[in-house]
């Protein structure tokens, strides 16, 4: 990640809208040879908070025999980006690429903007909200919430933004990203809080809105002196999904709402996780679950889900909305899928109608409002596909064709296409002498 930290740090220094740092960038561009290292390191250390990753990246490449030439070329390239006026756009692009290469094991996982937009719209933060991301990655959810509030005509300056990072590097990336997008936030490196007893949390640390994409199932040892406690039951020692979920529920203010990305395994795993899931459903904090397509992230191809949590328990008829959106989306690369604006609107509109009770109807194969008693009968499994498939009527089921039938039809059509190709070739061969 040395190269990533170097490029992102330099790009930030070049385009950040802070007048007192312009002279620092001018010093960097005027420096040649070894003084170039000193100019960059001085700018990194003078910044508040200090850009330690940029400083360490410069120090790491000092001993490369080509370091001066490479650093000079990178600085000039960054300056060209600055003068193009597209610095923030390029920063976002590189942040996505670099964190995608790092994978989900890094604390700085980057959530694609279509998924950010979807989750923010599902929560619909308003002016005056307190917004929290307990695993802020690169700050994209806080930025997405600020953009949503501004687009609604309100002022994001009336909103408080708080982010907790799992590492100093994640905190630095978040700080730079937020600053470039004009969002002020309270940032801390406090990732171990998910291991604490949630009964120690005070009202002053509760939030109206929580949006997050925590790491999937960290298998790190329990820190010395810390208890893994959940109000819903003992937490498993090798998986962190429900540690995050219980921490987020405990961080919600009364009436607060949360949207959290979770691995699909959290929907059906048994044991201690199954017990916690049952307690959460019975208590009414699980409002909805949305199954998303596989390949949403560049760093992993596994399918993910979005859990919508609420401390208000304002659900129609004591039900949980389950949406199977796994068939939505389109491929934007060989391995990554994305959600279009229409895909996002379909999911959001379904939730809005369900919440209001105005115009909602189950859609066979897509969405179903399930009574908690039915979920209890299913062993508290929350996999949307299980329930939306059961909502398909017998008449519709008979009209659906099996994979074997579809495969046989495909083979038949391919054979028919080959026959038509042969007929076309024969006819072309007959008229070719007249053409030549």
Give a structural overview.
With 436 residues, the protein is α/β, with parallel strands linked by helices. It folds into three domains: 2-85; 113-390, Vaccinia Virus protein VP39 (Rossmann fold, 3-Layer(aba) Sandwich), CATH 3.40.50; 401-436. It contains 16 helices and eleven strands. The chain has helices at residues 2-15, 22-30, 35-46, 52-61, 67-84, 87-102, 113-123, 140-151, 168-180, 241-251, 271-283, 341-356, 372-377, 384-390, 394-399, 403-435, and strands at residues 130-133, 160-165, 186-189, 207-212, 252-263, 286-291, 304-310, 319-324, 330-331, 337-338, 367-371. The strands form two sheets. Strands 3-2-1-4-5-7-6-8-11 form a nine-stranded mixed sheet. The protein has a two-stranded antiparallel ribbon with strand order 9-10. A hairpin with a 5-residue loop joins strand 9 and strand 10. The chain starts with a helix and ends with a helix. The relative contact order is 0.08. The mean pLDDT is 83.
Offer a concise description of the structure:
The chain has helices at residues 2-15, 22-30, 35-46, 52-61, 67-84, 87-102, 113-123, 140-151, 168-180, 241-251, 271-283, 341-356, 372-377, 384-390, 394-399, 403-435; strands at 130-133, 160-165, 186-189, 207-212, 252-263, 286-291, 304-310, 319-324, 330-331, 337-338, 367-371.
């Amino acid at each position: 990640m040395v190269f990533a930290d170097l490029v992102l740090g330099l790009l930030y220094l070049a385009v950040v809208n802070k007048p007192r740092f312009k002279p620092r960038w001018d010093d960097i561009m005027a420096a040649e040879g070894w003084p170039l290292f000193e100019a960059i390191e001085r700018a990194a250390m003078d910044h508040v908070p200090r850009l330690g990753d940029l400083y360490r990246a410069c120090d790491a490449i000092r001993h490369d025999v080509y370091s001066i030439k490479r650093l000079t070329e990178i600085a000039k390239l960054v300056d060209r980006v600055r003068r193009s006026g597209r610095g923030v756009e390029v920063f976002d692009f590189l942040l996505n690429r670099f964190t995608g290469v790092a994978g989900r094991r890094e604390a700085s996982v980057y959530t694609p903007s279509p998924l950010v937009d979807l989750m923010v719209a599902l929560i619909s933060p308003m002016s005056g909200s307190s917004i929290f991301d307990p695993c802020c990655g690169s700050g994209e959810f806080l930025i997405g919430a600020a953009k949503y509030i501004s687009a609604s005509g309100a002022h994001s300056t009336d909103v408080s933004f708080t982010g907790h990072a799992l590492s100093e590097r994640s905190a630095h990336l978040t700080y730079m990203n937020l600053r470039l997008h004009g969002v002020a936030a309270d940032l801390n490196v406090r990732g171990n809080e998910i291991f604490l007893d949630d009964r120690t949390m005070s009202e002053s640390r509760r939030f109206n809105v929580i949006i997050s994409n925590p790491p999937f199932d960290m298998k790190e040892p329990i820190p010395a002196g810390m208890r893994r406690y959940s109000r819903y039951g003992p937490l498993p020692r090798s998986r962190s999904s429900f540690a995050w979920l219980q921490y987020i529920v405990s961080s919600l203010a009364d009436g607060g709402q949360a949207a959290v990305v979770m691995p699909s395994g959290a929907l059906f795993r048994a044991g201690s996780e199954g017990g916690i899931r049952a307690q959460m459903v019975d208590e009414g904090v699980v409002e909805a679950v949305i199954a998303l397509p596989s390949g949403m992230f560049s760093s992993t191809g596994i399918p993910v889900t979005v859990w919508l949590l609420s401390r208000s328990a304002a659900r129609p008829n004591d039900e949980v909305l389950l949406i199977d959106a796994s068939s939505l989306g389109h491929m934007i690369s060989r391995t990554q899928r994305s959600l279009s604006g229409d895909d996002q609107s379909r999911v959001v509109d379904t939730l809005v109608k369900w919440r209001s009770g105005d115009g909602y109807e189950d859609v066979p194969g897509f969405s179903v409002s399930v009574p908690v008693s039915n979920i209890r009968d299913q062993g508290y499994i929350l996999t949307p596909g299980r329930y939306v498939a059961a909502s398909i009527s017998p008449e519709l089921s008979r009209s659906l064709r099996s994979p074997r039938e579809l495969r046989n039809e495909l083979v038949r059509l391919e054979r028919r296409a080959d026959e038509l190709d042969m007929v076309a070739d024969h006819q072309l061969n007959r008229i070719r002498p007249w053409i030549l």
